[in-house]
Amino acid sequence: MSQSGVPHVVVIGFGPVASRLIEELMPEIQAESLRLTVIGSEDRAAYQRIRIGDVSVGRVEPEELAMDEVASLQAAGVEVLLGVEVTAVDTVAHTVTLAEKTLTYTKLVLATGAEPILPNMSVELRRDGHIDYELKPTGYPNGVIALRDMEDALRIRRALEKREPVVVLGGGVLGVEAALAVAEVGIPVTLLHRGNVPMGRQIDTEAGMLLRRELMRAGVDIRSACDLTTVVSEDGELTAVRTSLGEKLPASLLVTCTGVKPRDELASAAGLPVKWGIVTGRDARSTGTQEGHGDVFAVGDCAAVDGRDPSGLIAPGWLQAEAAATSLRQDLGLVPEAELDAAGTPVEFEAGAGFAPAPGGLDVVLMKSKTLNVACAGDTSHDPWDIDPWDPAAPTVSTWSDPKHGQYLRIVTEPVSAGDDAAGERLLGFVSVGMPRSAAELAMHATRGTIPVADRTALLAAEHATKEAELGPEDVLCRCAGTTAGMVQEAAETCCRTVEEVSAETRAGTGCGTCHKNIEKILATTGAPGEVKV
Amino acid sequence: MTTTPAADHTAERGSTRTVTTHCPYCALQCAMNLTVRETPGQETGFEVEGAAFPTNRGRLCRKGNTAAELLKNRGDRITAPLIRSRNAAGQRTGAFEETTWSHVLDHIVQRVRQIQQERGPDAIGVFGSGGLTNEKTYSLGKFARVGLGTSQIDYNGRFCMSSASKASTLVFGLDRGMPFPLTDLDGACTILLLGSNVADTMPPFVQHLEGARDKGGLIVVDPRRSNTAELTADGAGLHVAPAPGGDLVLLLSVANVIIEEGFADEDYLTQRVNGVAEFRRSVSHWWPERAQAATGVGADQIRSVARKLGHAARAARHGGDPVYILTGRGVEQHRDGTDTARAAISLALLLGLPGVSTEGRPRGGYGTLTGQGNGQGGREMGQKSDQLPGIRMIAKPGDRAHMAQVWGVEETSIPGPGKPATQLLHTMGTVDEQGVPKGVSALLVHGSNIAISAPDAGRVIENLRALDLLVVADFFLSETAEEADVVLPVLQWAEEDGTMTNLEGRVLRRRKAVEPPPGPRSELWIWSELARRLGSPAQFPVDPREVFEEIRDATRGAAADYSGLDWDLIDAGHAPYWPVPSSTLSGEESLTGEPVVGTSRMFQERFAHADGRAQLSAIRPRRQATPQAGELTFTTGRVMEHYQSGTQTRRVQALQDTHPEAVLQVHPATANQYGLVEGSYAVVENAQGAMVGVVELDDGIRADTIFAPFHFQGSGTANLLIRGLTDPHSSMPEFKNTPAVIRPAVQGEIPTDQTPEGRQKEGAQT
């Protein structure tokens, strides 16, 4: 207990998972039944880290991703320390050492996240157009950036302003998202990755083939089964990269998405069990058995729940934050107000309402892109023709593949209990490319731990039922003025750059305004790439 | 008694007279001409036809067209007070016997006194209705607080409008379902309609969607391709089908896109709205890809809805056609219904729509589609557990003082807030572990059939049977009345005078067209007599006009201010929009050219909070009950032919013939998986209960969803499956999102005959 007698919870790290934890404990903080200090190494309060790619291409401003506001947290009674590094934790003395002071805690939560793993690349130093053998490399040149925090995103954004070629290294979901986002704003980009297909660890090969094709169609140049060997530095600035295929690609920006490593050094130094992440139970508590270990919790990308590698996804992190909050309340004897039904009986709800996976649910990867819809979860690597049809425990693989139209769907299920049909099936995994309705349905089922209807064609039917038709040139685009899509197209090609200009030229969009979206679409697809705003 | 309708609205030709009044059913309150033919020695004949009024423009739905069926001389009308005895075990086993009014009123008073002496005034509960006239709903609240001295009053509107009402109050500062004339929708280019199947529930409303349909701008959100969702076909708009329970996240995600793609009206937000930053931060959680997993709606469709709204709203700011966001019970009848309605309002504010006109043209706004006939007046006249007339708050000293003065009682004698409806019904007649009663021991029910319409109907019936006294006032022997100790016959719509407030806040005249059969009495008379016998200090007028005048006093200066209303003006055919603080004619003209009385478009200068600004705040979805492996989601609603618990419509032959019993609507693929055959019976069940219905296949419903109408009785009662989970802000029950399993019915579960007549026959045989 701290001096005031009110328990003091110290949270190290102020990312989205820490933010969720604070939100969860807010009633207790406001009731002054616990004190909370949060220590962030960045200069800003928690933000939606998962979305910083959108900041880097200028789609959103940093403040739009803010999850907390320091002033309101302070007003609620939270102590917020920003831009502060923690140098040591003493689990016996229950202290946290900062540069200028030492804090005493009752309970400690480590939410230190993860840091990018930089690839091992050699540096080719050039000066005045020639290799300079005299210079000794002092690190990677400017323009090599691992996208992890808001500062990285802002640096990438500044680099993109030059609109010079970009290389993205890494074929995981982050690399694919980054490359796609750059392509979507019309800047030349090449994705280098080591596998045969992008996202090869998450999706089956056939899906990966289609994904590669779709990425190329979206304007991403791809080098598969390829590594980056060398970065070329000219006067300290990145100018090109060399690949294992012997190719030299010009680039002023290299974004590396080659994995992350849990930030567990503080825990490790404090003697807490660490194994690619701080090892915790499902209650978020450290599994350490030494004095004081039971008062330490870890959540998010730095935590290895039950010793498993952190998933890197946000939904499980938020679930851990809830688990930690529950543990803390129990430890501190704080009983949250239970929800009662109308007769006064307490009710509880399972996870799985799209917030975090239910027991039996799967972590879902939902790729963020405005042009390409990809979602996946679990394992879809099964070969449908390699399954014994007489094995009652064998999985079922359903695949829809239509590469020409950019669609691919695979659903893998297995019997809950071999030989007992009544027990039903469970979802082992799915992947969906270019099928947004199916992606949404399956993402929901995967999160809830349920499965879609046995006849999978019901999903396919939903796919077309709500698809918006593309307008042909003779189709009326603006019902109010009778303007056709072709007339708008012509205006866009000849003279008009904005909806207002199109309206002035063709009268389209001057009535109800509902066709503005379609006018913008035509403007966007006919516009020269260089003119799209970053 | 004011029983003579105004001359202008009654045309007499010999033995035939035509009275212009409004429909007995829903909140659209379609105007109708009711023609009565009285020929000596013959049955009185009735004819109904639609009359001119802006909401229905002469149209009626099938329910309205057949409304007069129930005015006929029928065998099932209750024509005398009924009473029955109990056996030694206290069960109501005796048959109903007809008795006199004086005996039955004395009996009720004697039992009420006895129970209150034993357990105190709060041992008596009162349950009201959004179907009662303004005068009755006002008098019922007064009767409970002053006549009975109990705090335990609530009404069936708790199951209907409570979430939207709470949300409007929180954000706008005041709740009038549609704060603009319904006809404003006609000019809209884009209408986002969430959780409302108007094509079935209020068909004449659909004509107001035509403008948006013509412009391709009708967006319907419903887990089923309902008849309303069908209206979006062929380029008329977009149907979005989230999983039940996904509405809130869907709205937050649309808001997320609106903000991030720059569609928010920043000037408007700065000038007129508080709490924007807090709301934005909470919305940042729901980018479209993430929202997919909570809604089942694709990210592309979420963006598409947002952009449609965003572009249309941007155009509306520059003089384009207005944009509206409307919600119905489908999104409001949830444990998070208030937050969902709040999200819909917040979206409208982000787009800069409510309470602005550009050169006299409205920009758009938010409205909720009130359900019951007097669902609007019913929620503002003081039958809510926490409110006094005029939406005054029962816990607020100033409001209490005003009402004490109007009622002529001591302020301290007015009780505090009571339990909301579900809590009232789920605790009545029960005791805790120590044997202490958890709720009321007696219940007086007016205009409501809770044995069908309340959540966990099985528990409700069980609790009704455990009450020491159950009094039900109705015109037919409803399923709730069948449980009663005492049934009081009352008047139907065309047998009484009064006022109703429709879904746009217009006060309408309900006119008496026929003499009631001998026996039934007005509730106003019943409460007056009961109050007198109970020795009430306050007077209870029996003339609706006198009560109307009292309402004017009671609401003077209140949020829902009726004080400027004039009975003669309403009687002459004007339908004023409240608030009507003082003057009568506003000088304004409606789009259809009629003079406007009262406030047609609200919030034009300011919202109703003290600082005149709307109040946004963070919205964080909470966990909810989601289906586990093997379960589907059960959701409920209405069909065209029936109204609410079916007490009336199940007795209209034409309607009953078309839709005689409960159906279970499922996707063909789902039926295939669970072995269900179209036209045969299936059972949906969960821990609360089970219902039986006929399987109906529809490839427009989500494959993970089962839909059932809630109009039916016995094993066809949908609300048997509904848990008593309620919204923490509004106490709205979770009607629309219930995990359950489905299977074919087996022998013994298949109902022999579900019609009331059939059941009567069965009863006669046993």
Automatic annotation (TrEMBL), chain A:
Pfam families: Fer2_BFD, Pyr_redox_2. One of its GO terms (molecular function) is iron-sulfur cluster binding. The keyword Iron-sulfur applies. This is NAD(P)/FAD-dependent oxidoreductase. PANTHER family: NITRITE REDUCTASE (NADH) LARGE SUBUNIT. It comes from Nesterenkonia sedimenti. InterPro entries: BFD-like_2Fe2S-bd_dom, BFD-like_2Fe2S-bd_dom_sf, FAD/NAD-bd_sf, FAD/NAD-binding_dom, NasD-like. Residues 8-309 form the FAD/NAD(P)-binding domain. Residues 477-524 form the BFD-like [2Fe-2S]-binding domain. Its cofactor is [4Fe-4S] cluster; siroheme. Keywords: Heme, Iron, Iron-sulfur, Metal-binding, Oxidoreductase. Belongs to the nitrite and sulfite reductase 4Fe-4S domain family. Pathway: Nitrogen metabolism; nitrate reduction (assimilation). The keyword Iron-sulfur applies. Signal peptide: none annotated.
UniProtKB/TrEMBL annotation, chain B:
Pfam families: Molybdop_Fe4S4, Molybdopterin, Molydop_binding. GO terms for molecular function: 4 iron, 4 sulfur cluster binding; metal ion binding; molybdopterin cofactor binding; NADH dehydrogenase activity. One of its GO terms (biological process) is respiratory electron transport chain. One of its GO terms (cellular component) is membrane. Residues 756-766 have a biased composition (Basic and acidic residues). Transmembrane segments: none annotated. Residues 363-380 have a biased composition (Gly residues). Residues 16-75 form the 4Fe-4S Mo/W bis-MGD-type domain. InterPro entries: Asp_de-COase-like_dom_sf, MoPterin_dinucl-bd_dom, Mopterin_OxRdtase, Mopterin_OxRdtase_4Fe-4S_dom, Prok_molybdopt-oxidoreductase. Residues 360-384, 743-766 are annotated as: Disordered. Keywords: 4Fe-4S, Iron, Iron-sulfur, Metal-binding. This is Molybdopterin oxidoreductase family protein.
